[in-house]
Each structure stands twice: as structure tokens, then as C-alpha cells.
Amino acid sequence: MTLSTTWLSQSAKLKTTFSALALCALSNTAMAAAINKSAVQFIGPLGADMQLKPYQTDHRDAIIANLLPSLQKSTDSIRVFGNELDWQSFDKVSALTLGGLQALKFTASTERFSQGSLTLKGIENAQLFIDGEKQTEKNKSYELALSQGDHQFVIITEQVANWNEVELDFTAKSELDTVQFSAKQQHGLSAKQLFDAPTVSYISMAPNGDYFITSQRHYEDTTANQAQYVTELKDEKNNTLYRFESAQPSNITWSPDSKSLVYLLNGELKRLNLKTMQLSVIAKNLAGANGFQFFDNNSLIFSWSKSPTDNGKLTKHYQGLQDRWSYARTTSQVYLLDIPTGLSKILSQGPLSHSLEDFDAKSGRVLMSRSAQAMQLSPQPATELVELNLATSALTVLGQYNTFNQAKYTDDGIYVTAGPDFNNGLGRNLPEGMLANNYDGQLYLLSRDGKKATALSKEFNPAIGQLNVLKNGDALIKVTEQDTVQLYQFDLSKKRFNKVNTGFDVVEQVSYSHERTPRILVTGTTASTPQQLKQLSLGKSRAKVMWDSKPIGYENTQVASLEEFNFTNKDGIEIKGRVYLPHDLDSNKQYPALVYYYGGTSPVTRGFTGRYPFNLWAEHGYVVYVLQPTGATGFGQEFSAKHVNAWGEYTANDIIDGTKAFLDKYSFVDSKRVGNLGASYGGFMTMLLATKTDMFSASIAHAGISNITSYWGQGWWGYLYSAEASKNSYPWNNPTLYSQHSPVFHADKVTTPLLLLHGDSDTNVPVGESHNMYTALKLLGKDVDLIEYKGADHQIFARDKRFDWWNTMLAYFDKNLKDQPQWWQYLYPEK
């Protein structure tokens, strides 16, 4: 008999065999039932001639752990010690005993967080893995806690007397804990895939384009928070020529003639001869050195920093605003290293740190930037662009600027990226009286002497980011273009921006050859497809895929579908957005929804994964609406300038009106079950929205700002960010902005349940910002929770904390939007 639900209504049915379903129960009494063997796959014997089973050796766990990845793969067979073994349905197995090892594999699917226990009968020695993680056994039973979605179970057995007597029984904790078991290979997207799957974390192409380096990173249960890296040298046909040492090399740089490369590893600067593949050590004891580049074939230019010691002092005397940063008194200078002898000589000097911007070996000139003075009161320190003539040791100041990002030589001058206010507002393209948002990057061209500057991007809406210069003098730049990150070539002769067709929504890393027609390596994703590495040539529209993470980390994985959803706000401006839909969505049902935003100076880009995994939320049954409110860069200067001195004024209206438009469009979304969340400035927006509307049923603010004044005056970055967000406004000349736009001043208006998340070591938005709001709401008797992540800064990076963080957010929304509090209660039981 096949059941359409996981619960039986009569006790007489307790012995019914399940068809791909788990447990049944009567009322609130938990009862066990056997999993139908047709829902389970079997393979064995693995290593039939084993004299001793793993549990009889000193290395059981290692033996089992090394076998596990082969069993997890979605393949029909496995070859072990030369023998081809096929997976088969467990109900076809009739042997009494088998040699070697055997394995069972199946999928457990849940529509909600579910708990229970799995009992193994007839198996003497076994290990159970769920989604690759080893489970703890107690009296042949395993306690399970499964989040919504699909979970892979693998049981590796070592001793079975009679396979005909083997049974797997599942007992649910309560009648609400529903689990379906099957042999299906197709599964929904998981958190582990998004975090653990291999990604290309570094790329670098040789100047001649004949070689390139990739570094792949992945995580696994056995190494927990420690990432695993594989760094390889490849030829243009993607063949591996050399694999680097097990540790992760850094500061990789190619010689101009492409005959060798240099890298740092374990404190040693090494050189690899690409013809002989021989290694030599150039220098040691290079703590604080970074940014190595070949100046010519025989020397390297680099930066070398030195941090002062406090010599056990009991106090710290602050001498300027930058002194709030722990590294403010670290000085960095530019050096030149002679490769044959290992001798280094300093090029810059003095009390001011110098940053290497670029160099021209032919003319013997080095381009650097530095702060105008070591410590100063200005919230946005002025930057000097200086040029060093190596032949004369003369240092020339080319200019001093209040906004500055990068500078690179080109044949006709010097490219500079900076905000619209660069060089007395040269790049501004705004209505009279409107203040520019200097996070909206622009491109300029300086003459070599710095006396003449030309704005190149005033009519170009995307925000300029990373700058590179091609051999022909054109600029190759990454830009923020609405909610995407794209690659553009700036044609210097024609003063024109040309988009490079990468096929990505979000371009991540870029490397290129130094040929006249350069070859380009680029990594990236789309909103619905994971990372790829591609190679392309400028001027050609077709890109070649060199590596793809989808068949490696996302095989047989279902991903949410994506729809574009834009609306026009009250000012007649189109607000861009997108909607993620669960892959099995039934438009006749009603779904909960999540609304996500940032609201600060940058849009929420269309990456496949990240800190906020929209595709994963959709997999958990939420319709997800992501919008780009007024104030973000990438939509033109006037759009981004509205962020200045607004502190949520436009953004809140866009989020509220956008959510209303979203609910009007998507009738299958339940308007009574809509949650909202954001982080940093988005966390500020969540708190602020809670004081302005009751349209949301649950809200989450991560690292949010509750009091603009305390944020401005504390932490490392508050005053610096406020130099744009609150330009020319201070608590003494604009108290209304600082108080009336601060959520804590309106805490009495909050009616929505609110979860505050914060790293207790946050140096950007101090954890006190969440404490402010928590204290206010608790005193007011409001529904509020505060959770701190120990040792975490502004972002949650560590693998274990990331998974817990993701689970916490989903569990909170499940409790408030799905009426499913069990997951939250499991994570945070009442004391």
C-alpha cells in the first residue's frame, strides 16, 4: 500500500510497508515503521577479499571517510580494485552474508523541519552520513534533525550476518515531523553546495597568453572551516603543466618575457622557471611584503609594511580619526628587489605610507598615492598622487584630491578612477545644488604632469570599479551596471565605452595577456547558474568555457526560476527588481515571501550565491523579491546622489511601494506572510521600516544601525561612510537627520516581530547598534530577539557560523511565516 501522507489514522495500519515514505503515527505518539527497501539503493561487496574490516584496524574512520565521496556521486556504478560494481535496489538483495563493505544510499525529503530517529536492524557495524556529515550512533539508533529539503543518506556497513533481516526503521518525534524516503537522484539546492562547492578563487594569465594559473577552493566536512586549495599552472589548451605545493601560493606575478613566475609561499619568495620547471628561492623573511610585480625581467617592485609595537603601554593616545583603525599607524613603503642577489632598496620614504599605483619601467617612473598628512581631522582624508623619477630620485606631486581610488599609466597620460567630486567636481553630472555620491566611481584622464584632467564617464551610468590598462592604452574596467557587474573596454582614441560580452551577470575576476589583441580570462556567475571560468578575445563575441562548477558541485540539482520585476515609484523612476520562485511552485497555492534589499550605496548584484542565498530561500518554499531602491550606484549619478543626506527617506518608500506592487503582481503570495531582511545599511532599513509600516509579518536586521549618531561616532568606518551618507551634516548642524531618521528614536512604533543578528566583534557597525534597539524594544514589551555570533566581524565568513547563520534566519521565518516554530525551538530552546 502506498500512502499519500506520512501519517496513518488507525493503529491497525502500523505494519504497512511504505513506498518511498517514512513514518506513521497516531495522535502525538511516535511509532516506528520500516523504510521500504525499494526506496534504498545498495552496492557491494566493496573489497570482497578484505581480511579485516575497517573497524578491526587502527584507521577505520580514515578508510570510511576516503570511500564516502565515491558513494555520494550520482553514478550507476563504482570500480573498486578493478571490479565494476553496480548500484541496485535494496529489495533485490537476497544474500545472507557478503564480504568486504556494503553501502546503502537514499534520499530523505521534508516539507518542513522534521525530527526523529533512524534505527538500523541486523547491522553490527556501520556509519551513517547525512549530506556528507557523520552522525553519532546510540544503541543502533541515530537522532535526526532535518531542515526542509532533500538530504542524502549514506550508510557504510561493515558487518551483516543476514541481509534478509536488515531493516531501516524511522520514528518521527511527533505527527508534524514528516519525511519521505526515495531513491531519487534529483534534489533541491542545499546550503552545503552553495558554500562547499569548488570555485575558482584566483586566476592569472601570462603576458604572452600561453599560460595561465587557476586556484580552486572548496570546503568539506573533514576539514571544517579550513578551505582546501589546488593551484595549477596550465597551458592555453587547459592542460595542467605544474601543480603548486599543498600550501596556497600568493602574490603570483609573471616575468615580462613569460619565461618565469614568482610567488610567495610560507614566507619565501620563489621563482619557477617555466621551461625547466625548476624552483629557486629569491628571498626570505618578507613579513609584511605584498603586491610583488616584475619591474623588468631582473627586478621586482613591491610594497613592504611595518606595524609599530606598543611596548606594553597601558594607554593609547589618539592623534586623529584614522587612529580608530587598528592598523592606522602601520606604514607601508615601495621597494625594488634585485632578483639575482635578493637585495632590496626602498623607493619611497618618510612618515607617510605610500601605495603603489603603477610603474613605467622604460621611463624609470613609479606612480604612487599617499595621504596628504599622517593623521588629520578630515572625515575623508585627501590623497596625493605622486611620481618618482628613479634616475634622479625626484618626487613630484601631481595633484591632491578629496576623492581617489586608482591610477594607472597609459600612453596619453594617467587614468584615474574616483568619485564625481574629483578635481573640484570635474566628473559631476547632477542638477544644480545636488550633492554627489562619491561611491559612484568615474573615469578620468590626467596629463602626465597632472595639470590637465578630463572627465571620461560623465554620461556613462555604470559605476567604475577595478581599472586595468591594455597594451594599446585602452582601459579594461569592471563596472557596476544596475544590478550586474560587467566588463567594459574604454577605447581611448574614440573616447567610447564598449561592453565585453562575457555572458555573466556578475563578473568576478579578470586577467588578461599583454598582446595587441589580448586574451582575457574571466570568472563569473548568473543569478541562476553557478561559477564558470571563460576565455575570450576582445572584439570576438564568443567565449570559451574553460571550467564549470555546475557538473562538479550542482549535479542533478533543481534551482529556482527567476523573473524580472520592475515598478515605477512615486517620482516616476523605475526601480529594478527580480523574483525567485520555488522550482516546484504551484500557482494555485499561497506562499510566504521574503523581501531583501541593501539600500546603501551599491545594488544587490545577481550573483548565484553569496552571504544572502536567494536561490536557497526559494528552495525552502519562499518567493523571494529583491529590489534596488533609490540611492544605489550603477543607475546614474542622479539616482545614486539621492542617497546623500537621506538615511532611508527615499529607500523606505521604494521598499514599501515595491512590496505592494510585488503582492499585486504575484497573487500566489500570501500578503499576511511576508518577511523582510537586510544587512548593514540594509539592517538599518529593516529597523527603520519596522517603525514605518506593519505590512511585514517578521523582520531580520543583521549588523544594522539603530542610532546614526552612535554609528557615526563609534566603530572604524562610521565617520568615513557618513562623509557621503551625511555629507556636510553633523549632530550639531542637522540634529533632525541624526535623531528622527534613527530607528531607536521611534522604537515605540514597532509592531513587527524583529530578530537582530550581529557579530560581537563587528568593527564597522558596532554590536551596540543592535543592543540599542534590543534594549528599547524589550523595555517596550515588543517581540524581539538578539543573537550574537562570537568572534564574528561585520560579515559571517567561517563555515560553521555561516551554516548556523543561514539556518537561524530560515528558522526564524519558518516560525513566523509558516507557523512552524520547531526548527527555531531546536536551535534556541527555551531555558
Automatic annotation (TrEMBL):
Annotated signal peptide: 1-32
Keywords assigned by UniProt, alphabetized: Hydrolase, Signal
Domain Peptidase S9 prolyl oligopeptidase catalytic: 614-819
Pfam family of the protein (one): Peptidase_S9
InterPro entries for this protein: AB_hydrolase_fold, Peptidase_S9_cat, WD40/YVTN_repeat-like_dom_sf
Database matches in PANTHER family: DIPEPTIDYL PEPTIDASE FAMILY MEMBER 6 (PTHR42776:SF27), SERINE PEPTIDASE S9 FAMILY MEMBER (PTHR42776)
Annotated protein name in UniProt: Prolyl oligopeptidase family serine peptidase
Organism in which the protein naturally occurs: Pseudoalteromonas shioyasakiensis
